[in-house]
Amino acid sequence: MLPSLPIPFSFSQSSLQDYTDCARRFELRYIERLAWPAIETEPTLENERRQQAGQAFHRMAQQAIIGLPLEKLEKLATSPELGRWWQNFCEAYPVLGYGKKLFPEISLSAPLGAHRLTAKYDLIAISDEKATIYDWKTSHKRTRTEILSARWQTRVYRYLLVEAGKHLNGGSPFRPENIEMIYWFADFPNESAKFTYNEAQHRLDGELLLKIISEISQSSQFQPIAERETDKKCAFCAYRSYCARGIRAGDWQESENEPDPIPEIVFGNILEIEL
Asked: What is the 3 state secondary structure string of 217-266?
């Protein structure tokens, strides 16, 4: 018997995006839990280096927000790339935190049908019952705003903050119109992508989330995307060999996304710098 979707299953923006991009990839990753048989981008060492730099930047940002001195953290910027990102962050940081309650690396979860919806936020900043969601991006290209608008991350993060964030707001749920999401690009600090929210969008997001989760739950077959759509999506997919969709990985310079996936960082296990 083939493995089936666990009940309840914790859906995230990543799993929903995988299903939207390719149902077969969702099945292989989340249901069959198969090991990745192929690298995602070429050259491999460069992709791995950028992945590690992205992890380090997220760690440094989290430590800055919890109060470690910026000048001490600067010592962790061990490459010109990471140093550039850190300088850009330090220049933007006073604006991010001025007069706000800051909740870095916080996770929220809420029931959705028979399953759960979860998200881990880089930063939620709150001021006067208004919440700003920040997501750090270390991609080498500034992802187009229309791509970000269509991605599940933008829907899930705003929706879930309304549904599960009242403990951050004195016990009162955030009103959708008081929520904003900002993608901040470490290499393009003045080109942030901002998304507001409203009640109509929140209601639509809830309907779309229930619809896609119901579709996934009732699926008995998860088909790969059509051949005509494979040029770029399959080139950056580590499961492409299961579908006979090419041998060579895509060039990282052609991707608008960060290296995928960036393993979850467990901040409690990270050694602090010496003060």
From this structure: HHCCCCCCCCHHHHHHHCCCCCCHHHHCCCCCCEEHHHCCCCCCCCCCCC
Residue 5 counted as domain residue: no
Q: Is residue 247 part of a domain?
A: no
Domain count, the chain: 1
pLDDT in tens, 25-78: 899 889 988 876 555 444 456 667 778 899 999 999 999 999 999 999 999 998
Residue 261 counted as domain residue: no
pLDDT at 223: 85
Q: Is residue 28 part of a domain?
A: no
pLDDT in tens, 92-125: 988 776 678 999 999 999 999 899 999 999 999 9
User: Which CATH number do you get for residue 98?
Assistant: 3.90.320
